[in-house]
């Protein structure tokens, strides 16, 4: 499975904020494998302000040694849950 570290490795030169499409393009340009691209394509189509938001939204597994607290935090994170832009709190 793909971890957050695997995904972020291909986004080191990414300038933020950036939409999902630009993030996927940057990963393709950097030579990301198919699994990483799939994880990025699974993100909601919104603008991301930093790599932390990408890591939270990408369809990845946490590192194999992730604590139960880290697993629960990822499950609770609802930052980008396909909420219409006009309904998001700013």
What's the layout of helices and strands?
Elements: H1 4-9, E1 18-19, H2 20-29, H3 34-41, E2 47-48, H4 51-57, H5 68-76
Antiparallel strand pairs: 1-2
Helix pairs in contact: 2-3
InterPro entries: DUF2795
Biased composition (Basic residues): 81-90
Region (Disordered): 61-90
Please explain how this structure is put together.
With 90 residues, this protein is mainly α. The protein has one domain. Helices cover 44% and strands 4% of the residues. The protein contains 5 helices and 2 strands; from the N terminus they run αβααβαα. A two-stranded antiparallel sheet has the order 1-2. Helix 2 (20-29) packs antiparallel against helix 3 (34-41). It is globular, with a radius of gyration of 13 Å. The relative contact order is 0.20. The model has no long low-confidence stretch (mean pLDDT 81).
